[in-house]
Amino acid sequence: MSQNNQHFKNILELNLAMLLISTSGALGRYIEMPVPIIIGFRAILAGILLFVFCKWKGISLSTSSKDRPTIILSGVLMGLHWVTYFYALKLSNVAVGMLSIFTYPVITALLEPVLLKTKFQKIHLLLALLVLLGIYFLVPDLNFENSYTKAVFFGVLSALCYSLRNLIMKTKVGSYNGSMLMWYQLVVVSIALSPFLFLMDSSGIKEQWLPTLTLALLTTAIGHTLFLGSFKRFSITTASIISSVQPVYGIIIGMIFLKEIPVLSTIIGGLLILTSVVIESVRTYK
C-alpha cells in the first residue's frame, strides 16, 4: 500500500472512531437511568467485550508493575470524564454537552508543556481565549441555578479529566496495545462504580439494555479502541484536531434521532470552540 493510501486509510479509521464515539451524546440523553448506573453498566459490558477481543486476538494483558499506578490513574480520570460528561448531557442537550467537552484539545495544549515538559507556545493563550469566548456563548447566564450553566461547568470539568488522561496515556501507548490499555481503564471504572449498582435504582436496565449495550460496544469498545490506536499513527494534537468533527456528528445524530435543534448562541459558541481546535491541528500538522 502506498504511503498516501495508508495515510488516507488512517484518516478514515480515525473518522470512523469519531463517528462511533459521537453516538455517546444521543445515547447519554436517551438512556433513562442515573448517570453512575449508565456508566457502570457501560464499563462492565465494554470490559467484557474487550476482554473477549483481547483473548481472541492473543493480546497480552500483562503490565509492568511500574506502569500500573499510571494505568489505574488514567482509569480513574476516564471514569470521572464519563460521569461528568453524562451529567452535562442530562442537564442540557447533545449540542451543549458535546461542545463543552470539546474545550479539551486547548486544555491539552496548555497542560502539555507543564506535564510533558514541551515548549510553551504563545498562540495557545489566544486559542484559550477563543475557547473561553465560545463557552461564553454556550452559557446563557452565569447563574448556577440554571441547568445549562451547570452543564457547561460539568462539560469543562469532563474535558479537564479527559486531557489529563490522554497526556498520561501518551507516555504508555507506544509500549502497550491500545485495546489492552482501554480494558484496564474499563476494569478500574467498573470497580469504582459497581457499588452504585446496588445503592441506586438500576432496574431500568431491563428496558434500556439495548441502548446501553450499543453504548458499550460501538461507542466504547470499538470507538475508543480505534481512537487510542490512532495515537500511534498521529500526534495527540492531530488526533484531537480530527476529533473536532465529533460534536458535529453528535449534533447531527441528536437532530435525527432526538429532534434536538441547537439554538443560534450554541452554534456560535460551538463554531468558536471548534475553530480553535482546527487552528491548533492545522498548525501542528504543518
TrEMBL record:
Which residue ranges does UniProt annotate as crossing the membrane? 12-31, 37-58, 70-88, 94-111, 123-139, 151-168, 180-198, 210-229, 236-257, 263-282
Q: Which domain of life is it from?
A: Bacteria
Protein keywords: Membrane, Transmembrane, Transmembrane helix
Q: Where is the EamA domain?
A: 16-138, 150-279
Which InterPro entries does the UniProt record give?
Answer: EamA_dom, EmrE-like
Output a single Gene Ontology CC term carried by this record.
membrane
Q: Where is the signal peptide?
A: none
Q: Which Pfam families match?
A: EamA
Q: What is this protein called?
A: Threonine/homoserine efflux transporter RhtA
